[in-house]
Every structure is written in C-alpha cells, then in structure tokens.
Inverse folding.
C-alpha cells in the first residue's frame, strides 16, 4: 500500500476542515476551543483509504494568528489541496499559505473551490478564472480545479478520483535514509506513557529501535508504533506515525523536537542556506536581521548573516560625516525582494536539520512570511561576510547531484582536519551503505584519501598533498639551516604541522612520503631521502677526534657533556657530531655514558669467552674481566647486556645466554 500525505492550505473560513470531514468522515478539529469558536486553531489529522492508497490529511488553521501552527503541519507533504471559497476567491491567507507551499517546494497538488452551492454558475466560473490566473507559473498551473460542496457532497467523488490520479504520479519517499520524525504532537496514554506523533519524513522506524530526541539529546527506545491508528512493527517514510517512547517525560518530547536513530545526527545552532526573499516582502532583508525560522515543526529565532562575493558586494549606503573614521566604517548589506543569496542563519536555540531540508522565515514584527530556502550545511563553521571560500563551497553543495558529490565537498571543506565516518553521517544524514558506496567511488576517482581504517578517517587528496608538501618544505628548511643535523625529530615535525590534527593523519602522510621515497624515517628522526651530510675538513677532524677519545676511554666511559668539555668542543657542534656517530652506529649510548661500538663488541666477546668456564657471572667476575671498572659503569653495562639478551639476571647473578 502506498501512503500519501496531503496538506490543506487556504484562508480562514474557506472550508478546509469541512472538506476533510466530507472526504474522510473525520472531524480534524479535536480541541474544545476549536469546536466552541468554530475555527481551526491547531493542526488536525484524518485518513482515508482509497484503492491501494492510504491518504493522510493534515488540516491546518487558516487564521493569520495561527500561521506558525500551519507551518508545523506543512512539512513532509506529498501534495497540497489549495482550498479557496467560491464566494470569496483568493484572500490574504490564501496568498501566504500558497507562498509557503512554493517555498517548501511541494511538487504537486490541486485546487478545491469550496462552497460551490453558495454561488451561481456565473460566479463559480469567475472564481475558477481568477484561480487559474492566480496559480499561473506555479506548480499548480496545470493541476485540476475541483468545485465541491462539503454540505451537499457535490464534487466530493470527483475530488477523490483526482486525488487518486495525482497519487499515481507521486514520488515515493526515501525509506533508505536515516529516519527522522519531527514531533507535532505529544501526549500521555494511561498504561503506555509518552506518545508522540508526526510525519516520518525519511527512513524507517522499527519497534525496539534505540532512538534519540534532538536537540535535547535524550536517548530511549521505541516501545510501540502505530500508523493511522493500527499497531505496526515498522513505520516508513511518508506515513503519519505515532511512537510510544520508553521512559520519557512528556516535557522532553515537545513540538519542534525530532526523533532519529541514536548517535547518528547532531543538532546545530548555525545553518548555511540558500535564502529566497519573496517578491511580496515589504522591504529588503538586511544583514544581521532577526527573523523567525520555521523548520519541520520547530520555530526558533535567528539572525541572518549573508555570505557575499567580495567582488560583487555593494553597500546600501556609503554616506558618512566628515568626523567618521573610514577604517571603522561598516556598511550594511541587504537582500532585495524576489532575490536569493547565500547566508548563515545563527539560531538562538539549536535544531536538528540536514542538507536539502526546506525552511521558512517570517519577519520578527509584524509576523508575516517573507521568504525561505534550502539548507546546504546544517553543521557549519562560523563565516565572515566576505568569506569567498565558504561561498564557493556552498555553490558546490547547491549544485551537488549525488551523495558522493556532497560528501566530497564536505571532506574538502573539512580541510586538514579531515572527517570521520561518524562526522560524514551527521553532516549528510546518509545511511552506512550510501556512505560506503560514495567513499568507494571517491577513492577510485582519487578525490579523497583514507588515512585510517580504525577509526575510518578521510581527507581530500588536495589537502593530503598540501600537508605532504609542507613536510617536505619544513625538512628542506631544516637541512639548509642545520646541514650537520641528521634531520628533525618526528615529534617536532608533528607538533609544528600536525599539532591540532588527528594523529592518524600525521602517520598516514609520513607513511605516504616514505613509500614515495621522499622522506626517510630513522627511529625518531625524519629527513629528506635526498639529504646527504657533507662535513668540512675541520668538522671531519673534530669528529674523528671525538670518536677516538670515546674509544680510548674503553669501559671507563664519560658522559657526553664531560667528553665535550674535556676536548673543548663547542657543545652545539659536539652534539651534531655525536648524533652523526650514533646514526652511523659508531657510538652507543648506555644510560648517561657513551661507549664506542668496538668496545661494546669486545665486551660481548669477553662474555662469550667467560662462558667456556662458567654459564653464570656475578658483578665481581664482570668487573674482573673488564679490567676492574667501577660499579657505576658495571651496572649500566650489565643491564645493557640483559636488554641485548646476552645475559639474563637471576638474583645476584646473571646467566650467560
């Protein structure tokens, strides 16, 4: 069975609720106050089964004071019934509701001329002609215009047939996406607890799913599901759904919150958007203007910050008095009616949103609908007015035609910070399957690099190569400045270039450069593979002098500082030559002492020779075979032999291996 969500739209007292009742037999006005006053105040719901289709009707209030309630019901619609009374024709709220439908990009629908029994044929045809002219150029231009009387039932069957015809062309909702249900009602049921209702705009919910209420972040499980009043194990996108939440207080499940899978999406206090200002907007929308943002069932206050192209920016006014300081002059910018531009909305309260979501903005005062648009990035960084790079990225997001293109742009936007799998999921709302397929495509095209498999981290190829180039440049500078140095410490390179980045990125870039043969990693030192040490004659002589002095000391070794002092070699130079000798494996450092490698090899031979007499050796015997060295040298040497697996300590003795 295919599920279709239909919303009403139109002026107050044009018969929307009566029409829904004539179609379904259900009075969508559920509040006592609505029945007393005879007007719809909040959104109401009804359903109708026709052939293989289940129609869910969302009846919205038509009074201008309750437009915010209308907006809470206008999301997730498959089609709209624009309801216009034949005796009044197009009225102010008809226009506002229809503007909202166009801004939300509702793709299909029809016009219903109600109260047809209250006018003669001539007036009915006049109303029809006015409606045809009004919807010209819109998504309803070629749609049916059905005349009905909810009182007599005339035209209702014809309307049902028209709805069925439209339903056959309706595009199915995306059930493979991450599920989201904006809450429009919340109440308690005795014996069950908290129940919330809404239109499931994407994905599927199953009984037992662990879910999260955003933006508050409370996690719970689905105890029970109902679709159109009947219990079900699975609810799919496009269905009016009631969800029984396990252990959740009613105040934590209010209108405006969103149900989604736990640990999948994130709420945000900023949105990057393409903003459209209606031609009917009473004035330009200025930079930093405060507006009312309607998204899903949520309403929050926000400020509009435009993201302008620096080469095309023109201030409204550049007048200033002679005493003003030009450097401190801050021109104001505005979006003209019937124009569109990129902007960042900074919200006073967080909401849960995703790229591709439509939204509406209304002026702070008076409260009228002035525009809307589409969200391009629901988790952005803060941008400046003249951020050309941010604007270019938003153009790419606007033009993206696939999840892969969207992911590629987000990874590019992340720059050197790269993106984890979880961050990609939160940014896009895509499923694991969609993300993995997109990642595979982008890797094959060499647009992105996988820098880590656990956790999964991705970086754009451009940023990856830029980091690699920075490592090369840093090492080149170091080699020029320190020609006698073997290279830079691995940790020093990481701190200078990768200090604020994930450690996996550093390891991947160094590994990449090593595989290419551009960088050589020797223990904790990094150097360009092309770097060769060239010593002057004077430096070579000092190096030999240093080596011979250490060799001559034999087992009675000194510390590095002591040797440099004894030979009166400048500490800086001595350190570089010493590191060079260590790298050449001519010297070995053991604790605080420096030994020549030939002396250590001689020591190992003496231990092997001693083994012909005994398989065990104590400190006294060790001191004897090394010429009576002091304990301060003997103990470090014995511990070194243990580490080298020449000996193994057994109490006060050592076993010779």
């Amino acid at each position: 069975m295919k599920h279709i969500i239909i919303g009403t739209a139109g002026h107050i007292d044009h018969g929307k609720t009566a029409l829904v009742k004539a179609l379904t037999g259900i009075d969508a006005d559920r509040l006592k106050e609505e029945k007393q006053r005879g007007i719809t105040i909040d959104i109401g719901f009804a359903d109708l089964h026709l052939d293989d289709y289940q129609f869910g009707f969302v009846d919205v209030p038509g009074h201008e004071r309750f437009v915010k309630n209308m907006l809470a019901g206008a999301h997730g619609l498959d089609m709209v019934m624009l309801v216009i009374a034949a005796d009044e024709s197009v009225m102010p709220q008809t226009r506002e509701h229809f503007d909202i439908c166009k801004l939300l990009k509702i793709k299909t629908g029809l016009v219903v001329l109600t109260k047809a029994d209250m006018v003669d044929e001539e007036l009915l045809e006049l109303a029809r002609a006015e409606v045809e002219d009004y919807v010209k150029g819109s998504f309803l231009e070629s749609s049916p215009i059905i005349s009905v009387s909810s009182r007599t039932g005339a035209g209702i069957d014809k309307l049902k047939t028209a709805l069925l015809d439209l339903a056959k062309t309706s595009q199915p909702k995306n059930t493979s996406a991450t599920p989201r249900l904006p809450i429009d009602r919340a109440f308690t049921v005795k014996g069950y607890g908290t129940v919330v209702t809404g239109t499931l705009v994407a994905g599927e919910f199953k009984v037992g799913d662990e879910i999260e209420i955003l933006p508050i972040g409370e996690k719970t499980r689905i105890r029970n599901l109902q679709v159109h009043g009947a219990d079900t194990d699975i609810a799919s996108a496009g269905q009016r759904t009631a969800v029984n939440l396990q252990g959740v207080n009613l105040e934590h499940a209010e209108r405006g919150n969103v149900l989604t899978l736990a640990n999948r999406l994130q709420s945000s206090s900023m949105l990057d958007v393409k903003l459209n200002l209606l031609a009917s907007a009473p004035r330009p929308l200025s930079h930093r203007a405060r507006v009312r943002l309607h998204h899903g069932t949520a309403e929050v206050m926000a400020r509009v910050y435009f993201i302008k192209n620096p080469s095309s920016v023109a201030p409204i006014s550049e007048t200033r008095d002679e005493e003003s300081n030009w450097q401190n002059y801050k021109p104001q910018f505005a979006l003209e009616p019937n124009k569109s531009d990129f902007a960042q909305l900074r919200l006073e309260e967080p909401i849960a949103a995703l790229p591709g979501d439509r939204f509406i903005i209304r002026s702070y005062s008076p409260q009228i609908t002035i525009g809307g648009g589409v969200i391009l990035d629901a988790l952005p960084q803060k941008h400046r007015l003249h951020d050309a790079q941010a604007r270019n990225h938003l153009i790419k997001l606007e033009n993206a035609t696939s999840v892969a293109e969207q992911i590629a742009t987000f990874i590019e936007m992340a720059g050197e910070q790269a993106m984890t799998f979880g961050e990609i999921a939160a940014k896009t709302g895509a499923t694991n399957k969609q993300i993995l397929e997109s990642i595979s495509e982008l890797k094959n095209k060499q647009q992105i690099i996988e820098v880590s498999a656990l956790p999964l981290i991705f970086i754009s190829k451009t940023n990856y190569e830029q980091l690699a180039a920075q490592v090369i440049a840093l090492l080149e500078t170091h080699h020029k400045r320190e020609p006698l140095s073997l290279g830079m410490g691995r940790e020093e390179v990481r701190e200078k270039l990768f200090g604020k980045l994930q450690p996996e990125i550093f390891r991947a870039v160094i590994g990449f450069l090593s595989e290419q043969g551009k960088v050589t990693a020797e223990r904790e030192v990094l150097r360009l593979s092309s770097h060769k040490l060239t010593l002057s004659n004077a430096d070579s002589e000092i190096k030999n002098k240093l080596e011979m002095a250490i060799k001559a000391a034999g087992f009675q070794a000194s510390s590095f500082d002591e040797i440099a002092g004894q030979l009166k070699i400048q500490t800086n130079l001595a350190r570089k030559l010493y590191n060079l000798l260590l790298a050449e494996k001519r010297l070995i450092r053991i604790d605080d002492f420096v030994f020549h490698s030939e002396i250590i090899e001689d020591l190992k031979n003496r231990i092997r020779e001693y083994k012909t007499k005994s398989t065990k050796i104590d400190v006294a015997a060790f001191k004897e075979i090394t010429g009576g060295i002091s304990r301060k040298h003997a103990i470090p040497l014995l511990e070194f032999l243990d580490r080298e697996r020449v000996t193994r300590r057994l109490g006060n003795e050592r076993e010779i291996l």
